[in-house]
Amino acid sequence: MHKTIQCAAFAAAMLLAGSAQALTIGEIDVKSLLGERFSASIPVTLAAGEDLTPACVRLEDSATSKYKSVPVLVRYNMQIERSGNKALIKLSTLEGLSEPAVRIDLIIRCGAKVSTSREFMVTQKLADTEKK
Fold first, then answer.
1. Residue 99, Ramachandran bin (φ over 0: left; ψ between -120 and 50: alpha; else beta)
2. Do the beta carbons of residue 110 and residue 90 sit within 8 Å?
3. 63 near 25, Cβ under 8 Å?
4. Could you give phi then psi for residue 64, rounded to 5 degrees?
5. Rg (CA), the chain
6. What distance in Å separates the CA atoms of residue 84 and residue 78, rounded to the nearest whole number?
7. What domains can be seen in the chain, in order of their start residue?
8. Beta carbons of 70 and 101 less than 8 angstroms apart
């Protein structure tokens, strides 16, 4: 009987842990080249009933970043596109970036239930000047 209770408690804990981590942030996709206006998108997967609004999403300059020497992305525009349990966070700048690398500290906090963050260090590719 004791073993049955332990197994049931373990199963319940696994279910709760799985639902607590339902919001996941995917890999960033940078579309711009060095010197161009920055353009990137970040996919987010949501669980049933979760919502993602612009009020929930922000970029911060994290004091605990392991890439503190890399400049943080500033003066950006953010759009969120939603389709079912998927969302796409689109980031862009109005001016071209001359920095070869930028840091993005993404924080998603939608109430007490949904909170997660992810840090990206992205490098900008050089434009291909060779004609083939």
1. beta
2. no
3. no
4. -100, 10
5. 19
6. 20
7. 23-123 (2.60.40)
8. yes
CB-CB contact of 91 with 39 (8 Å): yes
C-alpha span between 25 and 28 (Å, rounded): 9
The SS3 of residue 11 is helix
Tokens of 16: 């709760």
> Each residue of 80-117: pLDDT tens digit?
999 888 999 999 999 998 889 999 999 998 876 667 89
What's 127's DSSP letter? P
- CA gap 99, 54 in Å, rounded: 26
Helix (H, G, I), strand (E, B) or coil at 88: strand
Cα distance between residue 42 and residue 71, in whole Å: 19
Single pTM value for the model: 0.76
